[in-house]
Design a protein that fits this description.
The complex is a heterodimer of chains A (208) and B (408). Helices cover 34% and strands 25% of the residues of chain A. Classes of the chains: A alpha/beta (208), B alpha+beta (408). Chains A and B meet through α2 and α3 of A and α1, α11 and α14 of B.
Chain lengths: 208, 408
Amino acid sequence: MLKIENLNHSYQEKPVLSISHWQVPQGEHWLVLGKSGSGKSTLLHILAALLSPTQGKVVVAETELTQLKGEKLDLFRAKNIGFVFQKSHLVQTLSVWENLLLVSFFAKEKTDKNKAKTLLERLNILHKQKDLPKNLSQGELQRVSIARALMLSPRLILADEPTASLDDDNAMAVVELFRKISAEINATLVIATHDQRVKNQFTNVFQL
Amino acid sequence: MNLLQISLKYIRQKLLATSLNVLLLGLGTGLILLTLLVFRQIEQNFYRNTQNIDMVVGAEGSPLQLVLASVYHIDVPTGNISLADAQKIQQNKLFVKKAIPISIGDNFRGFRIVGTTLAYPENYQAKLQSGVWWQKEMEAVLGYEVAKSENLKVGDTFIGGHGTQNDNNEELLHKDNPYKVVGIMQKTNTVLDRLVLTSLESVWYIHEHSHEEDHHHEEGEDHHHHEEEDKEITALLITFGSPMAAINLPRQVDALDNMQSAVPIAEVARFLSILGIGADALKALGYILLAVALLGIFIGIYNSLKERRYDLAMMRFLGASAGKLFGLIILEGLLITFFGLSLGLLIGHLSLEILAQSFSQNLYFELTGWFFLQEELWLIALVSLLSMLISTILASQIYKIDLIKTLQ
């Protein structure tokens, strides 16, 4: 479950985001829509506990985020939240396979090689497992970063403009993939986008 | 996956840049180490060979030359002194505990033939590996290296040549007076290993003999007496009987004609300080290389941090604590240092061993690359500490990475 109450966030004294109440039951898929500058990314960062809101209460996976600090917060995030950034941000010196295993290492979880293999297979990039990120196409990178976000079966999956750099067909396919995999692990999915193409696939839309 | 693997992967990806740093670090430490090893071995060798020899008495000339020639068998002798004069000093029982006469002048294929008494090998605690010590004229005992390099055994004979160096001059060979090998010494790690020892009488015999051929003069008792008067040695190696000898003996020596005394320890210290200047110059060069290498590591890590801001930010996002990433950067610095130092140790020891092997014939004493010093540990500690410091300063930048700005 995800819950926001009386959230206010200001950046350099200027208010950038204000949400009085938003509640999402576990396993639902939501789209956060809004123009650039409307605070979509800020909302995602607050949900991912990357940013501490100026005011308000944020609960993710039964945990109030403001209660956690430092290393505990880092570990909570690593175990419970999967985040797909606009850019893939894979570790450049490690292969696709190693990038996935890295997640378990940093989250202090047991390395699940079968999981990594299954994910790569599902996302159709198993054949690239030994390649370095620089040898992958934009679409492939995106799929690897999705696989990475799913490695630890998070309770909450956040995606920031995942379709921005993709053509129509691929955009649809990626959104479809997000929904399917989230459903399989009963994760809450929140995708922030200004991409109108994906709008029709979601019934739950949160307009900023 | 663990930090070491991540570091190693990174180093492997940046092979050119990192191997350049490793190489510079290796060359720097290698050069410092080589200089240190050579100098220490020369030093040790010099001091080892002064065993119990407090003073050398020989012909007038450079005192350093006298010491080098009569203690280390490196330089040519300053000349000869009369046996009678030497005996006068030897008789001074109050100050002289032990006096070993040596007579140099011939060589066997570059190895010096030293006429002396049994007190000489005894002074170095030399033991025989085969045969017996010399008893009669023209019997010789070989040093370990001599026997090994010339492949001689007890019972073999050989011909000495005039002069302390091997001139390959047929005319200078004492063909009519071959030496007989009666004994071979065990390895002593002193100058003895490269010497041929015989009695003083053998040396006198050879030179009187060639004398007679030239002159055919005089006869009978007069002849014999004259010879006794004439007998000469190159130097007298003295062990003091009392501390006062250091003051009194030189005075007594100076009173005699054409004689001087020299203190090996003092001369060697002077000689080494001259060598030391060269060693310092080499060491300075090594330190410059080392400084360049450390600068390289600094620039390397700095660039890697800049380049990898995204990687590091992502690792933090994935749950890596700042401390873990801090460790990652320091580990990278340490790995480069480790490889560099290993290379340096290898370069230092191996190059010395190669040098020693290829120059073994021209060296007056044995050099080896398989010689280890306590200073090496200091060198390793110093370099590790410096690179650790550099890594730490740079790694602290990690705390300044803004996750949101970097990952957006």
